[in-house]
Structure formats: C-alpha cells, structure tokens
Specification:
Layout lengths: L4 E5 L3 H12 L4 E5 L5 H10 L2 H4 L5 E4 L10 E4 L15 H18 L4 E4 L4 H12 L6 E3 L2 H16 L6 E6 L7 E9 L2 E2 H6 L5 H12 L1 H9 L6 H15 L4 E10 L5 E12 L2 E5 L6 H24 L5
Parallel strand pairs: 1-2, 1-4, 2-3, 4-5, 5-6
Antiparallel strand pairs: 7-8, 8-9, 10-11, 11-12
Helix pairs in contact: 1-2, 1-10, 4-5, 5-11, 6-8
Bound molecules: 3-acetylpyridine adenine dinucleotide.
3-acetylpyridine adenine dinucleotide (A3D) binds next to α1 and α4.
C-alpha cells in the first residue's frame, strides 16, 4: 500500500512542527509549501535528516509551487500571519482572507479529494471562507481550535487536581476566541464531572472559574510571553490528532470548527462543536443539550463568528 501524502500549506512555526510530528508518527510522505523561498525546502531537509536518528521513514520535500501538493490525502493550512502582542485574532482577518483565496484555489486545482484542516486565524471565519474558495465538500474542510482549547483546559485542570492529563476530559464549544465556551458540566476527571469535584472539595468554584478564564485567554498568554508570534507546539499536535483520526478511520469524537447544516438551529456557518472524524471526513456533528447559561454563551460566541463572516463578505463579495 502506498504511503499517504500530507501537504502542509504554510511552513512557518506550526507548519514545521506539523512536519516533524507527521514524520515521527509515520503518517505518510510530507510536502511543505510556502511562498517564502527556501523555508519549506530547508525545513523539509532538516526534518528528513532527523529520520535516521529517530527511525522514521517518510519522504519530505519543500515547494513554492502548488503543483507539489497534487493528490494529497490531507492538507493542513497554516498559511498567513500570526498574532503579535496587542493584536486580536480578528485583526488578522483582512490579510489572511486573501491568503485563503489563494490557498483555496491551489487545493481546488491540485488536491480536490483531500481532507483539509485549517488552522489560520481568525479560525471560524477563515475555515468557512476556505471551504467556499476551494469548493470542497463541507465534510472535508474543518477547522482546528477545539482540540487545542480543550487541551489547554485539560492541562490546567490536571495541574490543579494533580492527576494525569490522560484522565481529564474537557469540552470546549463555540468560536475560537475570547467567547469560546468551556463546558464545565461535560468536563470530567475519570468520568466525574467538574461540578461534582467541587462538591467533593477537590477545588473551589472560584479556582474553577479562574481556570475557565485562563483557558479563554490561553492563546493571548502565550503571545504575551513569546512576543514574536503565537503558540505552535500544542496547535500542531492538535491538528495531527485530527489528521490521524481521518487517515486511520479512528472515528475520534473531537471538538472542531465544523460546517453546520441545521444542527444547533444554524446553517451556512462554521463553529466549534463535537464531531466524529473518520475516513469520510466529518462523519457526524454531535448535538449536545445545552442549559440556559450555556446556550446564552454559545449564542454570543456564534454572534461574534457571524460578525467576522460579515466582515469577510465585505472584503470578498464572492463569499456572499
Ligand atoms: P508563521 O510562523 O508566521 O507561519 C505562517 C507561514 O505562512 C509563513 O511561513 C508565511 O511565509 C506563510 N504564508 C504567508 N502567506 C502565504 C501564502 N499566501 N501562501 C502560502 N504561505 C503563506 O505563523 P504560525 O505557523 O505560528 O501560525 C500560522 C497561523 O495559525 C496564524 O494565522 C495563527 O494565528 C494561526 N494559529 C491558530 C491557532 C488556532 O488554534 C486556530 C493557534 C495558533 C496559531
């Protein structure tokens, strides 16, 4: 059986980390693409040279021409610009929308059968635009944010409880941004919901509220520390988890920015919800019941995603 082909569109901090992880996990042969000349070629060669040491077999190459992604099974898109301190994800909209137009055309021409995972911010609006620009089925274009946001929540919770991160599950809904909705009720330690753990005295409501807020601000905290860009190790690991679920037909249940076609009473919109990812792409959108407060927070988050979509329509009339 031939190896899978993974195309990484954007070879910056996340793109390079994606290539390294995909190599280490032997997910397939890897093509790095970027408009910056030399960057994808240099990273491909460097990572390929780690193969003999790590013991993985993968062909890595770098390119500045879209023809190199031809026939890719998975495309992971990080092309664009990241945040600098003081910038919101939404400040990136104008620049990154133009990038999505070019990336969408490249994928449409050379990899129309791929499963596409978008990471470029502002995420929910960019993945929505990328699906339209590429014309690929909605089941095959998805955004990575929920796995990362949930991982941040899980890390903070595991540290607070002093238990393994493996035993902490967490759920984050809504748009990727300050309005994301960490669902405390659906987050557990070995199946015990967080509200029960508060009752059991494992933590206080105040501490839990602070963790929820730190999760919402998780990206900005790292931007503030790094000063020159945004997070890349955890975002790359999160997208690889999604790619692996598709390539191995694992049918993982993961939070992701998915196209809604009536679920949650919404249509023609991408927002973070639980989905099943398998060989068919996004095979199912899981509709969970929300209580009054959760619903209100989700609606607020949806409202801010819709605002970004309107801004995109203003810039690119073809999206209307
Ligand atoms: P960075 O290291 O700057 O890499 C971006 C790469 O894109 C650079 O190498 C650019 O040369 C390249 N690029 C720019 N324009 C084009 C184009 N038209 N075609 C191809 N390549 C192009 O950024 P990064 O890797 O740190 O971040 C990439 C994106 O991910 C940014 O938009 C971030 O905001 C976003 N991001 C999202 C999350 C989520 O959870 C959704 C987390 C972290 C970062």
């Amino acid at each position: 059986m031939a190896r899978n082909k993974i195309a990484l569109i954007g070879s910056g901090m996340i793109g390079g980390t994606l290539a390294h992880l995909a190599g280490l996990k032997e997910l397939g042969d890897i093509v790095l693409f970027d408009i910056a000349e030399g960057t994808p070629q240099g990273k491909a060669l460097d990572i390929a040279q780690s193969g003999p040491v790590e013991g993985f077999d993968a062909r890595l190459s770098g390119a500045n021409d879209y023809s190199a992604i031809e026939g890719a099974d998975v495309c992971i898109v990080t092309a664009g610009v990241p945040r600098k301190p003081g910038m919101s994800r939404d400040d990136l909209l104008g620049i990154n929308l133009k990038v999505m137009e070019a990336v969408g055309a490249g994928i449409k021409q050379y990899a129309p059968n791929a499963f596409v995972i978008c990471i470029t911010n502002p995420l929910d609006a960019m993945v929505w635009a990328l699906q339209k620009f590429s014309g690929l089925p909605k089941t095959h274009v998805v955004g990575m944010a929920g796995v990362l946001d949930s991982a941040r929540f899980r890390h903070f919770l595991a540290t607070e409880f002093d238990v393994s991160v493996e035993d902490v599950t967490a759920f984050v809904l809504g748009g990727h941004g300050d309005t994301m909705v960490p669902l405390v009720r659906y987050s557990t330690v070995a199946g015990i919901p967080l509200p029960d753990l508060v009752k059991m005295g494992w933590t206080s409501q105040e501490k839990l509220d602070a963790i929820v807020q730190r999760t919402r601000d998780g990206g900005a905290e790292i931007v503030g520390l790094l000063k020159t860009g945004s997070a890349y190790y955890a975002p790359a690991a999160s997208a690889i988890e999604m790619a692996e679920s598709f390539l191995k037909d694992k049918k993982r249940v993961l939070p992701a920015a998915a196209a809604l076609t009536g679920q949650y009473g919404l249509d023609d919109l991408y927002v973070g919800v639980p989905v099943v990812i398998g060989a068919g792409g996004v095979e199912r959108v899981v509709e969970i019941t929300l209580d009054g407060e959760e619903k209100a927070q989700f609606e607020k988050s949806v409202g801010s995603v819709k605002g970004l979509m309107d801004a995109c329509r203003g810039i690119a009339p073809s999206l209307a």
